[in-house]
Design goal:
Oligomer: single chain
Shape: flat
Number of strands: 5
Number of helices: 8
Strand content: 5-15%
Strand order of the largest sheet: 4-3-2-1-5
Order of helices and strands: HHHHEEHEEEHHH
Radius of gyration: 31 Å
Distance between the termini: 56 Å
């Protein structure tokens, strides 16, 4: 009975592997499409539909031309607003507007958070990661991947009495969030991996290991795996010698 179950499981293994591989290929685009459909439906039901109803009922625009007209008008308003803020007078008005919002207790908290997110997303200056390092965090003995962002602050460097680094530790499986830490430069280990390889490692929760690190494990370069194989080599040699002695034919003692 057990042998029959093992044979059935062996036959189903290629099928299961193919199904899981197909799921891994199809799931990312399907989820991406689903998220965009949900976002588009949310925007249409809460923003576009009321505006279209307003334009068709009161202005007299046909529903077919409502969306292009609204988009064109919206882009025109954004363009004029950007040009207005770019000049000195517009910048003064915008500064006074933000100061007025900053005086409203509840509104200033919400507005400040939204402004920080929008400035981060729409900023033309990208965050540059100089290299990938490994740091012991959240405690000694636990290593985490970190992205070096800058040389951090002078006051912290003076307090630490040695160079420090500002690093971002991304979280799995969504590396868009993480923890910003300031560590001593001597406590960071430089890793020979790229930024993309580090993100793949984080997103896959450690399943996708960078090829360079895999090559070290398999070719016997300095590391734990190599030392383990070196220590086990004499035992393997003894086992091979013993097997060869057992399999060798007996010598003919007759002369």
């Amino acid at each position: 009975m057990k042998r029959g179950q093992d044979e059935t499981a062996t036959r189903l293994h290629p099928f299961r592997t193919a199904v899981l591989r197909g799921l891994g290929v199809a799931l990312p685009p399907l989820l991406t499409i689903g998220i965009f459909i949900w976002a588009g439906r949310f925007v249409y039901e809460n923003l576009a539909a009321p505006v279209i109803s307003l334009t068709t009922d009161y202005i007299g625009v046909k529903p077919v031309y409502a969306i292009p007209c609204i988009l064109s008008l919206f882009l025109l308003v954004l363009y004029l607003l950007g040009k207005f803020v770019a000049v000195r007078l517009g910048w003064i008005f915008w500064t006074l507007f933000e100061r007025g919002i900053d005086r409203v207790p509840l509104v200033r908290n919400v507005y400040g958070a939204v402004k920080q997110v929008s400035d981060f997303v729409l900023s033309e200056r990208e965050i540059e990661y100089s290299r990938v390092v490994a740091v012991e965090w959240p405690r000694r003995g636990i290593w985490s991947l970190a992205l070096v962002t800058s040389e951090s602050m002078v006051d912290i460097e003076a307090a630490a009495n040695e160079p420090v680094l500002a690093v971002l530790i991304p979280t799995s499986p969504m590396p868009m969030t993480g923890f910003t830490l300031t560590i001593k430069k001597s406590e960071a280990i430089d890793l020979n991996i790229t930024f993309d390889e580090a993100i793949q490692f984080v997103v896959s929760c450690g399943v996708v290991i960078p090829p360079k690190q895999l090559r070290r494990m398999t070719t016997g370069e300095p590391g734990l795996a190599a030392s383990t194989r070196a220590a086990a080599a004499p035992e393997d040699a003894l086992d091979i010698s013993a097997d060869a002695a057992r399999e060798a034919p007996p010598e003919d003692e007759t002369l």
